[in-house]
Design brief:
Elements (H helix, E strand, L loop, with lengths): L1 H7 L5 H24 L4 H23 L7 H25 L2 H24 L5 H24 L7 H27 L4 H12 L3 H10 L7 H28 L2 H8 L2 H11 L7 H19 L2
Helix pairs in contact: 2-10, 2-11, 2-12, 3-8, 3-9, 3-10, 4-7, 4-8, 5-6, 5-7, 5-11, 6-13, 7-10, 10-11, 12-13
């Protein structure tokens, strides 16, 4: 697979593959966000997920993929710091605000700045039609946030602070997307970056989660938490891995925008799986997100 991916990198053949990878990442990211918010404390959920994917990545990193080149170690160090700050902000955001309100704000802030970052770092450019697609997609995403904000009754007293954290978290989404795209392009084998990233990234949060669990008065049982961690680890592998491979073989900005159709998938999951009611306004917003993604993909 590595040879095939490298053979299509930067070619026309890479575009449909990158599209599929970005949409897969979008769907799985919606699932991942729901898993972390879920019924468990977000800090514990994140710690369980990180522990599982770090443990699963260790043998791959140490014994399967080629070892990183020397210049990759500073890149991994900065990636660790950026992702750690992002995860702290994300858990804080989910603690303060209703998921249906803060999630669209986080995902809506990320792609705009990721496109700008891709232009500055990778010299990518969007056509006017693609920028129109970005605007349409963001209108749908932020429309969901406004709609949910209007009707939510959960944690309304914390909403201003939650929304502030959501915007900052979105900025870190853009930062890690752009930086990780730089990292996966800096090594010869993209799977070396992925295996070592998950191994290193899984070191910090489990320690804090274990400390937090130990000091809780009403401790959740570890069995269900571990199951959630295992499921989240598999979802994270395919979600993050898909978007990183998409940025390796094709446009960083385009992949970042298409991934944010995760808000659409989250709404569809709520409608089709959880049997939540969907009125004409939400259907219209879902249509805007889908339309924006189509314009971005075919407007280049």
């Amino acid at each position: 697979m590595t040879e095939w991916l490298l053979s299509i990198e930067g070619t026309e053949a890479a575009r449909p593959v990158a599209l599929g990878l970005a949409l897969l990442a979008a769907f799985l990211h919606a699932v991942f966000g729901a898993l972390q918010k879920g019924r468990h404390d977000p800090w514990l959920s994140r710690g369980a997920i990180d522990f599982c994917y770090g443990a699963m990545a260790a043998p791959l990193a140490l014994f399967v993929v080629p070892w990183p080149e020397p210049h990759m170690w500073p890149i991994f160090a900065w990636a660790f710091v950026i992702h750690l700050i992002y995860k702290i902000l994300q858990a804080k955001t989910y603690t303060l605000g209703a998921y249906t309100v803060v999630y669209p704000v986080v995902r809506g802030t990320g792609p705009l700045f990721a496109v700008i970052g891709a232009g500055l770092i990778f010299h990518e450019s969007f056509s006017p039609v693609q920028w129109l697609g970005v605007a349409v997609l963001l209108a749908g995403i932020y429309g969901f946030a406004v709609y949910n904000l209007k009707f939510t009754v959960v944690n309304r007293e914390n909403l201003p602070l939650a929304l502030m954290f959501a915007v900052i978290t979105g900025l870190f989404v853009a930062l890690y997307t752009t930086y990780d795209a730089y990292g996966i392009r800096a090594t010869a084998n993209p799977f070396t970056f992925l295996a070592w990233f998950f191994f290193i990234d899984g070191l910090a949060m489990p320690i804090y989660a274990a400390w937090r669990w130990k000091h809780m008065e009403d401790r959740p049982t570890l069995g269900p938490l571990f199951k959630r961690g295992m499921l989240g680890a598999f979802v994270a592998y395919f979600s993050f891995g898909s978007i990183m491979l998409a940025t390796r073989i094709d446009s960083v900005g385009q992949a970042a925008v298409l991934r944010e159709t995760s808000t659409l998938f989250a709404a569809l999951i709520g409608w089709l799986v959880l049997k939540e009611s969907v009125g004409p306004r939400r259907l219209a917003l879902m249509g805007l997100i889908a339309l924006g993604a189509v314009i971005v993909e075919f407007g280049g």
